[in-house]
């Protein structure tokens, strides 16, 4: 799968290059590829950022090799793009012209498991689903979960501070990480492999790298916090007549169901499109403006409690209709609308995919105004609203848009409205390359200057992920 045949992809892939030869000497020939098909496979993440084949791909097998590769590239004045599972939606892992892709795919060892303390030590390239299955088999649970679980890597999840379906209960990736090891652009390994929950020994440096999207260093190892196995889950789908009902229901569930782990909101246009695409039946006989997908996770069965809370919510006219899953298969069917997002993303390409954060009291008016504005301006495109309501994260999938100028107009329109509402332009997918022009709408001049100062401190020669988060 991995060889050194001269590349035939777009742009030259010269293996005569002195840097290439030095990397081969330091790491071994089987750690590099300039093969056209391999370069093509590394030309883009899941976003609509234009595909660019990297000059070559480096696939180190250990943290030390990652550090050595960085040291080498820096000393030759080269540029590296870090690639995890390449499921990012902000173009961060998509190469820019001339960049060398450094893939973490071979750093895939689960190194240690601490049964007593409930922690696991992993390398950055372990896919999220592999980690979830590993700890579940040992009677523990790793709470981060998202649709791309089969391909995204735990290092990529930390680099993007991924959120996902269970943030309402467990928080984002930031809250799951106890320790990190990072390869810095100067070729050193910065070890912060803390394993204890409470640690107040000065500045929490690891947090600088979580959510930094690979701009300050490459995450190579992580210590993750686990929770005891939560084997029982209950799932329900509720229909609501308006957004106020949704917020009242969320409050009820938070008070009455300590196991509440997901509260996914889907507007009618989203569920209609998801049902049409997947061939699923409509969730209820009547169509409603809003649907909430609810999940609880517990050691014991709490479906009776969920049913009681929902019965009262029906009596109090907080929900218009509700169905509680009666089996695992039924739960899977209820989730299929929300899980259709991957297919919808593909179907609406080239699209604008937004994941904005909004104050809860602005959410309903924002959606109503945006739906009307976008429908009027771009009647030929589809606009779908959904989100992780429990944490104020709203997704909007809008497309297709065939030309870049229109796409830019749509983005400007949405991001300006987000700024006016006091929100942020990314709740979880990050800034990558696609959102750098809009970052000043979400962060102050002082914050941007501090980010630039940190970049200059860790990466003065601008080796790593240049042009991500901050403009090139
Ligand atoms: P990549 O795409 O490879 O990289 C993402 C960024 O991190 C890039 O800038 C890259 O350079 C950098 N990077 C990657 N690995 C490292 C590393 N080891 N060290 C330093 N930098 C690194 N995201 C959510 O938050 N919530 C969701 O619910 C969600 N759902 C999704 C559903 C689908 C179907 C898809 C396709 C994506 C979804 N995403 C979601 C986005 C994506 O899965 C996440 O951003 C994920 O965390 C990216 O991980 P990755 O390994 O694929 O990273």
Automatic annotation (TrEMBL):
It comes from the Bacteria. InterPro entries: FAD-bd_oxidored_4_C, FAD-bd_PCMH, FAD-bd_PCMH-like_sf, FAD-bd_PCMH_sub1, FAD-bd_PCMH_sub2, FAD-linked_Oxase-like_C, FAD-oxidored/transferase_4, Oxid_FAD_bind_N. The keyword Signal does not apply. The keyword Oxidoreductase applies. GO terms for molecular function: FAD binding; oxidoreductase activity. Its cofactor is FAD. GO terms for biological process: respiratory electron transport chain. Coiled coil: none annotated. Residues 49-229 form the FAD-binding PCMH-type domain. Keywords: FAD, Flavoprotein, Oxidoreductase. Belongs to the FAD-binding oxidoreductase/transferase type 4 family. This is FAD/FMN-containing dehydrogenase.
């Amino acid at each position: 799968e991995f060889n050194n045949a001269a590349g035939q992809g777009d742009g030259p892939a010269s293996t005569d290059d002195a840097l290439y030869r030095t990397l081969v000497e330091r790491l071994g020939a089987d750690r590099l590829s300039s093969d056209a098909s391999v370069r093509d496979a590394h030309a883009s993440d899941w976003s609509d950022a234009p595909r660019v084949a990297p000059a070559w791909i480096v696939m180190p097998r250990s943290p030390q090799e990652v550090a050595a590769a960085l040291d080498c590239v820096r000393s030759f004045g080269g540029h590296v793009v870090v690639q995890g599972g390449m499921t990012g939606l902000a173009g961060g892992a998509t190469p820019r012209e001339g960049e060398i892709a450094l893939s973490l795919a071979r750093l895939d060892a689960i190194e240690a498991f601490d049964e007593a303390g409930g922690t696991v030590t992993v390398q950055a390239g372990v896919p999220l689903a592999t980690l979830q299955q590993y700890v579940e088999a040992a009677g523990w649970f790793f709470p981060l979960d998202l649709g791309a679980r089969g391909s995204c890597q735990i290092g990529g999840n930390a680099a993007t501070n991924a959120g996902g379906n269970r943030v309402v209960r467990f928080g984002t990736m930031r809250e799951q990480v106890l320790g990190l090891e990072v390869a810095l652009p100067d070729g050193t390994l910065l070890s912060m492999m803390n394993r204890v929950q409470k640690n107040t020994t000065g500045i929490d440096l690891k947090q600088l790298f979580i959510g930094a999207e690979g701009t300050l260093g490459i995450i190579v190892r992580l210590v993750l916090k686990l929770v005891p196995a939560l084997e029982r889950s209950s799932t329900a789908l509720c229909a609501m007549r308006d957004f106020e009902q949704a917020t009242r229901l969320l409050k009820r569930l938070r008070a009455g169901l300590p196991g509440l782990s997901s509260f996914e909101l889907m507007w009618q246009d989203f569920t209609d499109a998801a049902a049409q695409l997947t061939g699923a039946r409509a969730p209820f006989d009547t169509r409603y403006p809003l649907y909430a997908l609810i999940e609880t996770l517990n050691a014991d069965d709490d479906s009776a409690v969920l049913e009681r809370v929902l019965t009262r919510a029906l009596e109090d006219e907080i929900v218009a209709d509700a169905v509680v899953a009666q089996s695992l298969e039924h739960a899977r069917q209820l989730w299929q609308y929300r899980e259709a997002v991957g297919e919808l993303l593909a179907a609406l390409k080239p699209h604008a995919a937004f994941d904005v954060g909004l104050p809860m009291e602005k959410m309903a008016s924002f959606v109503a105004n945006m739906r009307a504005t976008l429908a009027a301006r771009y009647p030929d495109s589809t606009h779908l609203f959904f989100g992780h309501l429990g944490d104020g994260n709203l997704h909007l999938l809008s497309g297709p848009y065939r030309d870049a100028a229109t796409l830019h107009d749509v983005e400007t329109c949405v991001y300006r409205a987000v700024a006016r509402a006091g929100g942020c332009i990314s709740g979880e997918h990050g800034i990558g390359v696609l959102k750098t022009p809009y970052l000043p709408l979400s962060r102050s001049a002082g914050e941007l200057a501090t980010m630039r100062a940190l970049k200059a401190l860790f990466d003065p020669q601008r080796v790593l992920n240049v042009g991500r988060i901050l403009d090139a």
